[in-house]
Amino acid sequence: EGLCKGLASKVFPALLAAIEVEVGEARKKTEEQHTWLATRTLIACLLGVLPPKVSVAEAITTSNHPIPSLWGAHWACIEGALLDFPIDSASDQPFLAASEALSTVACRVPVLFLPAAELLARAPSKRPFPEASLRALRKVVLATASLREGYPSEETWKTALTGLAQSVLSAAEQTVAQNGRNLLLVPSTLSALFALVNAAFCPGVRDLHLSAALLRSPSRMALRNCLDLAIAALPGCADAEPSCEMIRFGLEFLRLTANDLG
After folding, report:
1. For a disulfide at 99, which of 132, 140, 162, 173, Cβ 3.0-4.6 Å?
2. Which of 86, 104, 91, 89 shows the shortest CA–CA distance to 43?
3. How far apart are CA 122 and CA 116, in angstroms?
4. Segment 107-140, tens digit of pLDDT
5. What is the distance between the alpha carbons of residues 39 and 17, in angstroms, rounded to a whole number?
6. How many CB atoms lie within 10 A of CB 11?
7. Do 168 and 218 touch, CB atoms closer than 8 A?
8. Where are the alpha helices (DSSP H) in 113-209?
9. Taking a C-beta distance cutoff of 8 angstroms, is the pair 82, 99 a contact?
């Protein structure tokens, strides 16, 4: 608690002022490289106050705890870094730092699990070829099995799974909608897209019924769009990683559709 208060009162005000300058300079000089030092420092400080892991006894499940309160007070900065601040083409910053921070806090602080996943899911509607946010959301999905103990009741856990399924579908839908067939020209993003959806089909995650939630969601047409994209991309795809992810997705989609929907 003392660390959070110290950061909020003595460190972050200066960092926020520096971030405002960074954003202004980046918007004026879009073709120059920017280190985003102040933004990345603030994000690093927020990560520094997180607990090492989730446990039943120590799980942070209320928003008035000092850690989620500190994150909430500076959420707009993370959101800006993820969705709005100009990206340095050489380092992918501050988009990369924001993406990784959100995946980390989602796995460490249950009360921020859904807000972080939902924010990551918004990135594809704002950023072309959002590889970093797709891979960050995939980390959240893969960590889902270990997060169950951080939820005090079955009801809140089911709500979290439903929200995560919707975030995955939204991210997939927006990635395809915003980039279309241009995804075929960027194998790394194509691979990240299908790796994200495939994460919900992994045995440990599938046992939590996340894949069933995906298939029964009102937004499940996003999966059909991914299948159409895979069918179009596979014949001309020379890269092994996206090809493997697309084939795996197609097989899992057909199997789960047959099993869960008849």
Report:
1. 132
2. 104
3. 10
4. 888 889 999 999 999 999 999 999 999 999 999 9
5. 10
6. 14
7. no
8. 113-122, 131-142, 144-147, 154-179, 187-199, 203-206
9. yes
